[in-house]
Amino acid sequence: MQILLSFLIGYFVGAKAVASARAVAESDEFHSLLQSLRSHAAATLHSLGDLLDEAPEAITGDSVVARVRRMMEQSKATAS
Questions:
Q1: Minimal CA–CA distance to 57: which of 69, 45, 42?
Q2: What's the total number of domains in the chain?
Q3: The dihedral of CA 65, 70, 76, 79: what is its sign?
Q4: For 36-66, how does the pLDDT look when each residue is reduced to its tens digit (9 = 90+)?
Q5: What are the backbone dihedrals phi and psi of residue 30, each rounded to the nearest 5 degrees, phi first?
Q6: What is the domain extent for residue 61?
């Protein structure tokens, strides 16, 4: 009997959590947050692309990761 009661309580709590999550996902505020995050990510990637294009030590065979690491090391060296 205790297992059945535990199952029913878990089912009820889980159903409430799913309904709450669905309500949040369908809200205008959540959609606005997603749009803001996408815009911020796009602007950040665009800025990073501009930095990589303008980097004077850019070598065509270099990977993006290597170029970013080198830029980070240079900025740390100039900061200290």
A1: 69
A2: 1
A3: negative
A4: 999 999 999 998 888 777 766 555 567 778 8
A5: -65, -40
A6: 2-79
Reduce the DSSP state of residue 10 to 3 states and report it.
helix
Question: Could you tell me the CA-to-CA distances from 49 to 13, 39, 53, 64, 80 in Å, in that order?
Answer: 47, 15, 6, 9, 25
Is the pTM for the entire model greater than 0.90?
Answer: no
Tokens of 12: 């009820």
Q: What is the DSSP letter of 27?
A: S
Tokens of 10: 């878990």
Task: For residue range 9-27, list pLDDT tens digits in order.
Answer: 888 888 899 899 999 999 9
